[in-house]
Amino acid sequence: MNNDNTSPQAAAIPAPILPTVDAHIYPKGGLDVLSREEVARLRDVSGGMHDLLRRCALAVLTSGSASDDPRAAQELYPNFDIEVLQQDRGMRIELRGAPAMAFVDGRIIRGVAELLFAVVRDLAYTAIERRAECGAEPQTTAGITDAVFRLLRNARVLQPGDPNLVVCWGGHSIGREEYVYTKQVGYELGLRGIDIVTGCGPGAMKGPMKGATIAHVKQRRRNSRYIGITEPGIIAAESPNPIVNHLVIMPDIEKRLEAFVRLGHGIIVFPGGVGTAEEILYLLGILLREENVGRYFPVILTGPAGSAPYFEQIDRFIRLTLGEAAASLYEIVVADPVKVARHMHAGIHKVREQRIAQKDSFFFSWAMHIPLDLQSPFVPTHEAMAALDLHHGRKPFELAADLRRAFSGIVAGNVKEDGMRRIEQFGPFEIHGDADIMQALDALLLAFVEQRRMKISGEYRPCYRVVQ
Hints:
Elements: E1 20-25, H1 36-48, H2 50-61, H3 72-76, E2 81-87, E3 90-99, E4 103-104, E5 107-108, H4 110-132, H5 141-154, E6 165-169, H6 176-191, E7 195-198, H7 207-218, E8 226-230, H8 232-235, E9 246-249, H9 253-263, E10 267-269, H10 274-287, E11 299-303, H11 308-322, H12 324-327, E12 331-334, H13 337-358, H14 372-375, H15 382-386, H16 396-415, H17 417-426, E13 429-432, H18 435-450, E14 464-467
Parallel strand pairs: 6-7, 6-10, 7-8, 8-9, 10-11, 11-12, 13-14
Antiparallel strand pairs: 1-3, 2-3, 4-5
Helix pairs in contact: 1-4, 2-4, 5-9, 6-7, 6-13, 10-16, 11-18, 16-17
C-alpha cells in the first residue's frame, strides 16, 4: 500500500476530441455549370494549393467561431481534409473529418455550404488566372484594378442598380457596448434600404449585418446583401460570421482593400485595433491624392459614448501625422445611430449624382485613383518593417501609405500564420521614425493593448517594438 500523500505526475491532457462528419456535396452557383476541361483544371489547381484550400475551408466550416487564433481550428480538427473530384455533372467536394457544427442531421447547413463553395471558387479561379498569365501578377495600376473587378464579378457581387452599399470597418475584438452600437447603426441603415459590406468576421463586422437583417425584414426587403470580403491570410483568424451571404476571398490584403473602396458607396468606421487603423490610413492615403481631390466619398467614424476617447486619440494621431487636410475627409459622430444613418444615406445620394456626372459606374468605381504603391502587396519581413519611412517632410499620402504598412505588419504578427512564424523566429518587428510620430504611434498601440483590441484569444504579447 502506498502511503505517500503525493500524487503521481499528471499525464499530459489530450486535446479535446470534437465530433466530426464525413460528407460529399455538389457545388452550386458559379461552380455547377462547367465543362470537363474547366473542372479538370480546377481540380488540378486545387491540388496544387491543397494546404491553403484546407485552411480556408476549415475556417468557413467553423463559421461563427469566437477565436482569432489561426491555428486553433487546425488543432481541434487535425484530421480534417477536403478534396475536389471531377464529375461529368460538374464536380464533387469530399469532406473528411469536418466539424459537426457545420451540419444538421448529417446534412451541411446551406449557408455554410455557400461559403464553402465561395472558398473553392475564389481560390481556384484565382490560381487558374495566374497560371494563364504564366504565374505573373499584374504589374500596372490598370491591370491590378481589372483583376479586382474580375474577381468581384466572378463572385457575382457586382450588380447594376442604385448605390446602396456601405462598407463597415471595425474590430473583431470589441466590448459588448460597442457591439450593441454597431447593431443599432446597422438597423438604422437597413431601415433606409442600405446593404452592408464588411470584412466578414465577428464583432464590428457582424453587428451591422445583424442589425440590418432585422430592419430589412421589417421593411419587407428581399434579396438583401451581406457581403464579406477577406483574404487567405486573415480568414483563418476571422471566420465568416453566419450572416454573410456573399463571401469573396481576394488574393491579398491590398486587393481586399481596393475591393472595399471600389465596391462601396460610403464607409463607416467603428472602434477597432490595428486592422481598423490600417484601413483608415489606406483610405486617407487614397483620398489625399491630387487625382482624387473633389471626389466625394462619405466617411463616418462612430461608436457609443464610451468610445469617444478612442476616436479622439485616432483623430489626434491623424492630425499629427497627416495634417488637417486628412482630418477634413471624415466626420466623427458619437452615440447617435440615427444621425450616422441619415448622413450616410444623404452621402450616398451625393455619390450617385457625382458618378452620373462623371460617367462612373454605380457598382464599381473605376474613376477612383489608386496608385500602384498602394496596390502592390507588402510582405512584412523584419527588414521591410524596419525600412518604413515614418518621418515628417513627406507628402501626406506617402506617409499614410507607409503608416498603413506598419499597421499591416502588426496585423500579420498578431493573427496571420506567416507573420506569427516570423515573430517566433526573429522576435518583434522594429518600427523607426521621427520621435513625435513614434511617441504617438506607441501611445496608440498601447491603448489598443490596454483596451484588449489586439486579440480575443489569450494574453497579448506585442509583436512590435517602437524605436525612437
